[in-house]
């Protein structure tokens, strides 16, 4: 059996990072269960684990393979499949992790992040800000997907509530039950694209993906009638090919999204722009004189809730206090595994 890996999101940018002799050893992580990884390769699926060398050299949990990663593998002495190397990531979506200082990768090498929020009791503007903060940092494009539109009776009010938060972010309102709005997702689901669905438990991610797959592949559960909350169904990340030629990554629902790294400047663009006019460069926008942000709150240009959300996320971010150079180094580590690896990739691009 021969599998065309372009159907699993293989792009020329990935192919350029390896030699012709390495091509047969190329695979993509489509599922993970603790230390075991399911790979899709040109000859089919393989169960794999990382080599001792890769594990030894890993400086953090983010240096291990994740769903979406392209890797090079080899056969071990006992015919097991071993992951030798993770290829440079084109994008990385990461979150904070309990009792971990280096975060947890949700998915990699994604083109679009569908941030799902249902239009029932799960609707929460501040939660959208959280997801956008990590999405803008990932290198992928965020799209807000408002699900369960068939049960919503105040659509216009909810869109108005999101207006300041979603500037520059495409918003799709849809229903997996009726099919409404599904056509608006199609421009992001063309051949070769990889999309990831993220959101709280029970917002309808799995139901929506099943509709896109054209079959019931993922388990789903209905919402609880007493509080309009959904039950957790997806327990692990997995990558699936869609009939359109795109790939989709389903992720477990998250009741609480902890911020590991993020792009507050993009998520809160209006606050960032106002801060440039503050009297002090290190203004915290709390009690300093000459604060342009506080002035905007006072005259209604920025809501107090929006500023408080910005300040809360700023405190939570694991990389708070790092300068721009340190932030850039941290991102290079997540994407490429270090400066030397990044230099090798650039050199290969120039040769090609």
TrEMBL record:
Residues 108-255 form the EngC GTPase domain. It is found in: Cytoplasm. One of its GO terms (biological process) is ribosomal small subunit biogenesis. It comes from the Bacteria. Binds 1 zinc ion per subunit. One of its GO terms (molecular function) is GTP binding. Residues 100-257 form the CP-type G domain. GTP binds at residues 147-150, 199-207. Zn(2+) binds at residues 278, 283, 285, 291. Keywords: Cytoplasm, GTP-binding, Hydrolase, Metal-binding, Nucleotide-binding, Ribosome biogenesis, RNA-binding, rRNA-binding, Zinc. Its cofactor is Zn(2+). It is an enzyme of class 3 (hydrolase). Pfam families: RsgA_GTPase. One of its GO terms (cellular component) is cytoplasm. InterPro entries: G_CP_dom, NA-bd_OB-fold, P-loop_NTPase, Ribosome_biogen_GTPase_RsgA, RsgA_GTPase_dom. The keyword Magnesium does not apply. Its EC number is 3.6.1.-. NCBIfam families: ribosome small subunit-dependent GTPase A (TIGR00157). One of several proteins that assist in the late maturation steps of the functional core of the 30S ribosomal subunit. Helps release RbfA from mature subunits. May play a role in the assembly of ribosomal proteins into the subunit. Circularly permuted GTPase that catalyzes slow GTP hydrolysis, GTPase activity is stimulated by the 30S ribosomal subunit. PANTHER family: SMALL RIBOSOMAL SUBUNIT BIOGENESIS GTPASE RSGA (PTHR32120). Monomer. Associates with 30S ribosomal subunit, binds 16S rRNA. Belongs to the TRAFAC class YlqF/YawG GTPase family. RsgA subfamily. This is Small ribosomal subunit biogenesis GTPase RsgA.
């Amino acid at each position: 059996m021969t599998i065309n890996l372009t159907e699993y999101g293989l792009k020329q940018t990935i192919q350029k990072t390896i030699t012709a002799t390495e091509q047969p050893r190329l695979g993509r992580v489509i599922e993970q269960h603790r230390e075991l990884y399911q790979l899709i390769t040109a000859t089919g699926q393989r169960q794999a684990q990382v080599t001792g060398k890769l594990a030894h050299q890993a400086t953090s949990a983010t240096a291990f393979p994740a769903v979406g990663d392209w890797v090079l593998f080899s056969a071990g002495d006992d015919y097991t499949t071993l992951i030798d190397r993770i290829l440079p990531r084109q994008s990385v979506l990461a979150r904070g992790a309990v009792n971990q200082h280096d975060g947890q990768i949700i998915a990699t090498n994604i083109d679009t992040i569908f941030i799902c929020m249902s239009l029932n009791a799960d609707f929460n503007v501040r939660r959208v800000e959280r997801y956008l903060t990590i999405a803008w940092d990932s290198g992928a494009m965020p799209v807000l997907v408002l699900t369960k539109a068939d049960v919503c009776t105040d659509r216009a009010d909810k869109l108005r509530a999101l207006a300041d938060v979603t500037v520059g972010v495409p918003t799709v309102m849809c229903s997996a039950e009726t099919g409404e709005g599904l056509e608006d997702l199609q421009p992001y689901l063309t051949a070769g694209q990889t999309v990831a669905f993220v959101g709280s438990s029970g917002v309808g991610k799995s139901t929506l993906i099943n509709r896109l797959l054209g079959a019931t592949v993922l388990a789903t559960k209905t919402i609880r009638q007493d509080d309009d909350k959904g039950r957790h169904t997806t327990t692990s990340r997995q990558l699936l090919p869609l009939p359109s030629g795109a790939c989709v990554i389903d992720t477990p629902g998250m009741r609480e999204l902890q911020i590991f790294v993020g792009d507050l400047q993009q998520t809160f663009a209006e606050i960032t722009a106002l801060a440039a006019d503050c009297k002090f460069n290190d203004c915290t926008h709390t009690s300093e004189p000459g604060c342009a942000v506080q002035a905007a709150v006072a005259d209604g240009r920025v809501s107090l809730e929006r500023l408080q959300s910005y300040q809360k996320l700023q405190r939570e971010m694991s990389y708070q206090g790092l300068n721009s150079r340190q932030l850039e180094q941290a991102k290079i580590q997540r994407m490429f595994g270090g400066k030397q690896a990044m230099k090798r990739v650039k050199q290969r691009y120039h040769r090609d």
